[in-house]
Design a protein that fits this description.
mainly alpha; UCP028704_OpgC; single chain; 20 helices; transmembrane helix; transmembrane
Length: 418
């Protein structure tokens, strides 16, 4: 969510490297802003995906055009600039592309694994639970179970992308565009920007008056439904974050005028981008509500989530700018100072959010599965305020445990440390 300057991350030298390559400059400490905001997004995503969750009424999506998806995609672009940008610079285009391909392979199998696990869980509930509702049907997976042979082929070729399982395929396609961007960088940065904007316009042709239907990917062989997250639209946000981290775009100045403009856009735009805020405005001023209501149809394409409409982009950039200002240069305002109780509490919270943000792929996959199971548990309660709060807090504790567990496994503690 926050714009941050290019980083150098620590890397253990390979013993086979020449001594002059091992003598690298001491890296700067990792900037906390990226992982902090990405960690926040992970908690919001869990809340948003628990069926019938009271807390979803208070996530960012209820107060403007953009939501936690934008935080996730933008920060993923920044993280990719750190993880892959250096590979392209150090090892060249071919090996950089190979590393991106390996990541795509990991994301693809994360997608398949997530689908299979949730499908098995829903099938087990329907088969052995004797519940009034069909959990397979609740995720619209009946076409898969009724005719699994072609849907398995579709699942593996990404021509069958059920709702709820659509963000990782989008992320995978956007990652696959990275080698093109890095190749265009060798021409000049204008070529990079032009390509990204052109691809985005292909998904949003209304911007230049070419009609409502843009380039998209089919989600179901038997219908015209497209991927809920069109990668050709969402790549613009991903590569905006990538460009800031790579230094292709300069960091914005801290300006009172920009701060005021961002706040004004977020506040004034809220009733136009949020049905919840619109109802509040209408209750306070029916006449104003009648003026705002027609804009929902007029701006439907401009705020569309599937193709990443322009209003979502502007809204998120305004929010990201304020987040960047609040965090301070290098994230210095996020770092706990002092020895008081509040400073220690904030230090613990910061460490937790950072850890969750660092393990975002593992946490995301885990949270998507966890959300369905928490939703199932809530189906058999009264969904009272305290019950729902308890369910959400248990979910938070479990994704925190997942983050620390993933970090522990990645550290490979079983390897000899000499």
């Amino acid at each position: 969510m926050a714009t941050i300057t290019p980083l150098t991350t620590a890397r253990t030298p390979d013993a086979s490297e020449p001594a002059n390559q091992q003598a690298a400059p001491t890296p700067r400490p990792r900037d906390p802003r990226l992982d902090f905001y990405r960690g926040i997004a992970m908690f919001i995503i869990l809340i948003a995906h628990i069926p019938g969750n009271r807390w979803t009424g208070w996530i960012p999506a209820r107060f403007g055009f953009s939501d936690a998806t934008e935080i996730f995609v933008f920060c993923s672009g920044m993280a990719s600039a750190i993880a892959f940008g250096g590979s392209f610079a150090r090892r060249g285009w071919w090996l950089g592309t190979a590393r991106v391909a390996f990541r795509c392979w990991q994301v693809f199998w994360a997608h398949i694994g997530l689908f299979v696990f949730i499908a098995v869980c829903m099938a087990a509930l329907d088969t052995y639970g004797n519940f009034e509702k069909s959990y397979i049907g609740s995720l619209n997976l009946l076409p898969f179970f009724n005719d699994p042979a072609p849907q398995l082929v579709g699942l593996f070729t990404l021509s069958y992308v059920p709702n709820y399982f659509d963000i990782l395929p989008m992320y995978l396609v956007v990652l696959a565009l990275m080698p093109i961007m890095m190749g265009l960088e060798k021409i000049n940065l204008w070529a990079v920007g032009a390509f990204s904007i052109a691809v985005w316009l292909s998904a949003n042709p209304y911007i230049i008056g070419l009609g409502p239907n843009g380039v998209s990917l089919g989600a179901e062989p038997w219908s015209e439904r497209e991927w809920f997250f069109n990668p050709f639209g969402w790549q613009l946000l991903f590569f905006t974050g990538f460009a800031f981290m790579k230094g292709w775009l300069p960091k914005p100045p801290v300006s009172k005028l920009l701060i005021a403009a961002s706040v004004a856009f977020l506040v004034i735009g809220a009733p136009f981008g949020s049905w919840k805020v619109y109802l509040w405005v209408k209750a306070a001023s029916p006449d104003l509500g009648e003026i705002i209501r027609p804009t929902y149809e007029m701006t439907s394409q401009w705020r569309e989530k599937t193709d990443f409409g322009l209003l979502r982009y502007v809204h998120f950039l305004a929010l990201a700018y304020l987040g960047w200002v609040v965090a301070g240069e290098g994230g210095k305002r996020l770092i706990a100072n002092g020895t008081g109780v509040l400073a220690r509490i904030w230090g613990v919270l910061l460490a937790i959010l950072t850890k969750v943000g660092q393990q975002s792929l593992a946490v995301f996959v885990f949270s998507m599965a966890l959300a369905r199971l928490i939703g199932f548990a809530l189906d058999h309660t009264d969904r009272a305020v305290l019950t729902v709060a308890f369910a959400n807090l248990v979910g938070f504790a479990l994704i925190i445990a997942c983050a620390y567990g993933a970090g522990w496994f990645k550290s490979q503690p079983w390897r000899s440390k000499k």
